[in-house]
Amino acid sequence: MAKVLISDKLSAQAVDIFKKNGLTVDIKTDLKPDELKAIIGEYDALAIRSNTKVTAEIIAAAKNLKVVGRAGIGVDNVDIPAATAAGVVVMNTPFGNSITTAEHAIAMMFALAREIPAANSSTQAGKWEKNRFMGVELTAKTLGIIGCGNIGAIVADRALGLKMRVVAFDPFLTSERAKDLGVEKVELDALLAQADFITLHTPLNDKTRNILNAAAFAKCKKGVRIINCARGGLIVEADLKAALDSGQVAGAALDVFEVEPAKEHALFGNDKLVATPHLGASTTEAQENVAVQVAEQISDFLLNGAVVNAVNAPSVSKEDAGKLKPYLDLAQMLGGFAGQITETGLKSVAIEYSGDAAKLNTRPLTATLLTALLAPQLASINAVNAALIAKERNIAVSEIKRDRSNDYPNLITLSISTEQKDHEFKGTVFGGVTPRLVRIEGIPIEASLGRTVLFVRNLDKPGFIGRVGTVLAEAGINIASFNLGRTGAQESAICLIDVDQAIPAATLDKIAALPNVVLARVLQF
Judging by beta carbons within 10 Å of its beta carbon (0-12, 13-18, 19+), is residue 228 exposed, middle or buried? Predict the structure, then answer.
């Protein structure tokens, strides 16, 4: 039974989901790093929020860990490269708190426009400074959205409802998507120059860190207002303070800070600042949603192999997992076969999906095939880190899709180039159920592979089958199936012999020494 550790506070409903799925659950919150490191090796899954720091050291100690589930969007508290290298899937829940975070950004924008926090403090102090708090309308103003993904798109929708003009900078935003959202796609400098309000909704990474700095503020309209409900570190806080002091920026509303908890800060005490303690996802609905989603995602992964909202692995829905199963078996067979008979270093791998196979979600298939292909050389490889390891080893990987296959309704072709020669292997799924190899090195064959398979390359000469059968019989090895293929009479041939027992090295040597045998190898699947 798989074990799940919940190391941050999650709702009781999430715990119930784990238990209803038959998983063992331990709840141990507020663990110190050394305490987490000492116990993490016991668990298959780790469910977290933002408090737990899943460092490379923690991952190295997590020998059984298969998945980390983050109840929320940001995964900057997880060492993604270390998790990927260790083959640990990292999932988040990008949609559970999207509305809540977007609404908080809109609320911050209103508070900023009408100076509500400062006016509230003044009024409750009995000052009644009506003329002091002269705000601005949102109607007809331009809102610049940096990062127009899920949350940014919701903010855009709400802003358009307020009759604002919306411009967006996002390298991944297509023109068609921008048109559907009703926003204008612009470059960053154009957004800075046009926006009356700027709101950030982008992850924190090397490309977005410090995206708003002194140079950016200088390009803005004088009196621009800044909202950040995304991640601390997107804004250079010292530069923001200088821009507020100079009047270049009229106000800022921050829900996130570079260092949290932000109990002391150079910006605090400034009437131009609206600050909240990372409340973007803090609604009853959002907390429940992300907790339930992460529990469902982890459960589906452990029980069904479904991969949803993973940041470092191909996604496979619960429904797709069933459809993909025979093709995943075929990918495993092709990669495993090629990997076990390849003797020299790989230079490139090309995978072609044809016919019905091309209509599938092929990313998991490619990951599975690469894993099986490289597994004979690397014991720690899996579908999560296979692409990374291939890249690190300078193995070029390409994927091709074709609408139809001339010979079969579906076909997967694996072509590999090594330091010595090129190889090609083809396989299909018969009847949508049974995976079979159909061509090896240009030789046609139809074979379903069992656990232990004897692969022999030979010259097609009379008496070969009988001699091989005799050697196996003398060793007490039973043949489950015998599959033959050849280019023509008296020419190159191969055979795949599925056997019920292990083949000792001495028996393999006898087969390799038979007349006309070019190669003999035992393959395990």
Answer: buried
110 lies in the same domain as 238: yes
Among residues 70, 225, 231, 439, which one is catalytic? 231
pLDDT tens track for 82-112? 998 888 999 998 778 889 999 999 999 999 9
Owning domain of residue 169 = 98-275
Are 79 and 116 in a shared domain?
no
> In terms of pTM, does the model score above 0.85?
no
User: Rounded to an integer, what distance in angstroms lies between the CA atom of residue 523 and that of residue 525?
Assistant: 7
Do 117 and 30 fall within a single domain?
Answer: no
382 in the same domain as 299:
no
231 is catalytic: yes
- For this structure, is 278 an active site residue? yes
pLDDT in tens, 306-365: 888 888 877 777 677 778 889 988 998 999 999 888 877 788 999 999 999 999 888 889
Burial 151-184 (b: 16+ CB within 10 A, else e): bbbbbbebbeebebbbbbbbeebeeeebeebebb
Radius of gyration of the chain (CA): 30
Is 260 one of the catalytic residues? yes
Q: Are residues 455 and 512 in the same domain?
A: yes
